[in-house]
Amino acid sequence: VTECAESGIYGYADADDAVVDAVRERMVRRYGWPEAAATRASVRWLPGLNPGLNHAVRAVQRLRGRDNSQVAMCTPIYPPFLYSTRNQEAARVEVPLRRRALSEGGRARYDVDVEALNEVL
């Protein structure tokens, strides 16, 4: 325990420069980001998907105004993902996924109902 405590690492580390550069280059090459927009500051490292969803909901609220923002989520979904709207006090619109027949392994499969999603967007 002492050895771990002396390491000084108590949480998530920042991405090293090579990783940040690789992300920036991919955004320019694959998604057409302008070189000037693909700065180090434009790459945000998050400790996980849940914090990322919370940031995304906040971004929607900033763009559309807190009272006018709704967040569409396709359900069923991993329950903790639903907390992002509750955490940010945002209106959530659930769009049910279409259930397909069971797979060979007996697992349920789902498809996005694009028409239903477009209606809410």
TrEMBL record:
InterPro entries: Class-II_PLP-Dep_Aminotrans (IPR051798), PyrdxlP-dep_Trfase (IPR015424), PyrdxlP-dep_Trfase_major (IPR015421), PyrdxlP-dep_Trfase_small (IPR015422). Keywords: Pyridoxal phosphate. It comes from the Eukaryota. Its cofactor is pyridoxal 5'-phosphate. PANTHER family: PROTEIN MALY. This is Uncharacterized protein. It comes from Ostreococcus mediterraneus.
